[in-house]
Design brief:
This protein is α+β, with helices and mostly antiparallel strands. The protein has a domain at 76-254: Immunoglobulins (Immunoglobulin-like). Helix content is 32%, strand content 23%. It is built from 5 helices and 11 strands. The chain has helices spanning 6-19, 23-52, 206-218, 238-254, 284-310; strands at residues 76-81, 85-90, 93-96, 99-102, 109-114, 119-123, 132-142, 157-162, 167-169, 176-186, 191-201. The strands form 2 sheets. Strands 3, 4, 5, 7, 8, 10 and 11 form a 7-stranded mixed β-sheet that branches. Strands 2-1-6-9 form a 4-stranded antiparallel β-sheet, with no helix packed on it. The longest helix has 30 residues, at 23-52. The radius of gyration is 36 Å and the shape is globular.
Amino acid sequence: MIDSFRPSLQQQEQQEQTTGVPQAQLKDVISNMTQSQNTTEPSVQTETQQRQIPQSGIILQPKSTTDTNVPQLPKMLMVTDDIFGDSRLPLRFSITNGTATDVTSSGSTKGELNEWYPIVTFHFNEPSQIGLVNVKHVLSGPIKSYDSPEDVLEDANYWENVPLNEQVVLEMNQPGLNYLVAAVQFANGTSGVYPAVMNVDASGSKSEGEDYLEFRMDEGADFNILDKSAIEDIQEDPGFQQAVSNIICSDLNDYGFQVCQQVQDTSDNVGQKPSPDSSTADIASLFEEEDRDEDNGNEEDEDEDNNNDDN
């Protein structure tokens, strides 16, 4: 019986001499390799099966962001003051075919401008996927108490076709808080409206600020001082007119100046304060009223002419 086991023992010794690994340890290695193959083969088969399953556009594929009805505009416009640096203006509205669309619920951020005539550059901090034209509109004015909505734009400054990525000089009418609204024109015909509340750190009088700017130019500084445009030109862009009305009313209301809110003088609400949730009057009505005034003036002139003819 003992001799019957000798061949197997000799064979084991020969294998150990050949491989240099004890037989028991060699069996463990072979066992582990077999188990590893058994565990990996099903996963490979599963991945193959998954590749053969038709992909569902709803479950496996992300929703496309190239919808032509939703313009993919840059989310942030930068205004870099030559002294205070960058201020961030978030995208608030998009204007397509003359209609303003609210693209975000966030309000205006806060930035800073230096002196009465700040030297600034409008630019994007990331490349735009849509071609850029220029800053089509820039509107700025004081955040303060106004007697009526009609007075708001009388204290504002307005510029058209401001270049991007170039230093320009703006003009402020009041130190302290001012609204600043810029509309960037893109090559696809869409505009993006970017607002901010700017703290204008201006010292002395405005005339002194102008004198200092002229002095720097006499010393050799080359500044592109923008010529202001007529505020009535905003009427040619009803989308911007609508967007800027919403933004200005919102900024004024945030700082406690509720000039945009209209409360009818009736016996039911006399003496009552405007409700924070009440609808705000659109400053665009300012232009409509001016149009009506002009029309009424033309009608009165016609009536006078007719009366003169009758006489």
